[in-house]
Amino acid sequence: MIPYITNRGGPMVGLEALSMQGLPVDELLLTRETEDQLADLAGNAMSTTVVGACIMAALIVGRKLLKEGDDKATYESKNDVAMDVDDEESDDMNVDTAAPVKDVPIEERVSGEDQLVEKPLDLASTASTQLESLLKLAQQSARLCECEGRKDITDRQLNRCVDCGSSSCVKCGGRPEHNFEKIDVNANPRLPPLTFAKELKSTLPMSLSLTGVSQTLLDSLKKKAAVSIPDRRWQAWCAAVLRVATHELRFVEPKRQEIWAATYQSPVAHLELSLHPQQPEWRLFARPEDDEPANSEVRRLLESPIGRFVCEDGLFEGRWDFALPYTTSIQISVSGSDPVPAWEQRLGLQGKEYRDRMVNSRLEISVGEEDLVHFDRNISGEYTLLDKCGTANSALHKKATGDEDAHLPPLFLFLDPTRCGDPSDDAFVISTSKRRYEYGETRPLICQFESRWRQSDTEELETIRAHVPYKWIRAPSVRLAVSACIQSTPEDTD
Known about the structure:
Elements: E1 4-5, E2 10-11, H1 14-20, H2 35-45, H3 48-61, H4 75-78, H5 87-92, H6 131-141, E3 158-161, E4 167-169, E5 180-182, H7 193-203, E6 207-211, H8 215-225, H9 231-245, E7 249-255, E8 261-266, E9 269-274, E10 281-286, H10 297-301, E11 307-314, E12 317-324, E13 328-341, H11 343-347, H12 352-355, E14 358-366, E15 381-385, E16 397-399, E17 412-416, E18 427-431, E19 445-449, E20 462-468, E21 471-474, E22 479-482, H13 490-493
Antiparallel strand pairs: 1-2, 3-4, 3-5, 6-7, 6-22, 7-8, 8-9, 9-10, 10-11, 11-12, 12-21, 13-14, 13-20, 14-15, 15-16, 16-17, 17-18, 18-19, 19-20
Helix pairs in contact: 1-2, 6-7
């Protein structure tokens, strides 16, 4: 049986399981573990083989101090221990003569029942907090170093890279070097994470559902996008979307990271709210069916989001976009200038191909006007190499911010290697997120370059292909709705 948390409307999560086992969760650094891993940790740490053995050992050692079930003598008299009360009082305090519990009526076994107050449980009620205020509080309480974990705030000096925006304390910083400057916590006071987590949980409903989704709507969006998708792929993707629309998504927990997030789950999907100060949005992911083969196309498709809700005036005020499973290949032009030593040369590699290798520190990417509609963001512009800010092969580039995207998250170009596979298949990507992703997480992509392209010192104009992994299409009739009531499903209690 899986414990069910009634006030949240969902099963017990891993952190709650650890807390129920008596472990000091406030003192543990739990930032990258999944819910399943935390649940496994709670079970393995307090299993019968560990705690049961300790209990048995304690009972064996103290066996001679225990009384028989029908023994009327007190523990003190059996062990010749003097008592501070007289015999008359000791007779009155003899618990062995008390009436058995089974003889006491059930309604009399609970004291203080008259003090209990009955109130209705409304899981749909939320506090009214403005989106702008919520984003400000999220930024004040965000994790600025890995050592802070979920709930701590370090008292060491914090630094932030002026180039890429990464932050760390003076103890954890060092590699990569970055271009750090001190964070003035006096001018920018920080907020305790627990305070913001409480505020966020009071603002968010405990259950959400996707409304306005039907096969007719999906077919109309496909027709509107004017794309050709194989029937097998389209039917499998539509089936996953329709499954998501039939289940409620229930709140799991807020996650303190570089950017605060809140997660919802259902048996067939998970939803994540990213409180990015420049672009807060919900991203919805569908789960493939359990009997799908490990290498099936459906599993690969569902690694990407099936939809997103871009917040505009509030958490539930904005637009809904579907990510149609259609990959577009666009020809783009890349030119470079200002060569600098490559990462192999800076490491001191002595091979002929590495010793004097140079790469361009500035890249100019241009996309034809007729092809801009295929991209979620305009990727045209100048990208500057940030060779001190890490990522694979020290290949992180940042796009120069213009008036067009000044209010949006910056774009990064970098090598994004796969978790396993042939290194020749690793490709450069353009994304708004450069952080390292754990297993099961998916990086939001704007586009992906063909795998053959690598940094060089050539100044000649190159023409390469960029692949857009999905096609965003707006669906005005679809909404993220608050569920008025929560009912348990068989999946929750099995």
